[in-house]
Amino acid sequence: MKWQVHQERSVFRTPWVNLAFLDVEQPDGQRAEYHVVRLRNVAVTALLNESRRVLMLWRHRFVTDTWGWELPMGLVEDGEEPVDAAARELEEETGWRPGPLRPLIYAQPANGITDAQHFVFRADTATFTGPPTERNESDRIEWIPLGEIGELIRGREIVSSATLVGVMALLLDGE
Prior knowledge:
The chain has 175 residues and is an alpha+beta fold. It is 18% helix and 43% strand. It is elongated and about 55 Å long.
């Protein structure tokens, strides 16, 4: 069963978000107006060191007024490849330049309401280049033992969907 989109109309647009109304025909033939949030793609890096610790940021998210551990991440710029955005964001936010990045997992969080795409990459080596250049990202940067990730998730210290998907993929990767 496939829904058919007959028309799309943007009702609010910024460089970060586009709210659109879609005229859709459902599989049973009924037509309805549907609301979609179009977002820019996100690139994420899970950097794991030789001690099986993952580099994470302790961040405050003002939208939900919550604190939590997150993987370094950011928006993919126009014309930029997700892998390049992941490397750029890692270095800007942590001061670590990754070695080779490889795809870890891909996700579409909330794909019933938004077209957001999360590209998560893994790096097993990195070079420290200096303090982060993006100073508004986190209160602290720490190497978290992979074995403690489950407890941080259960304790709601990891709640970001991109981070949850990334760290769970690391745990499943088993390397």
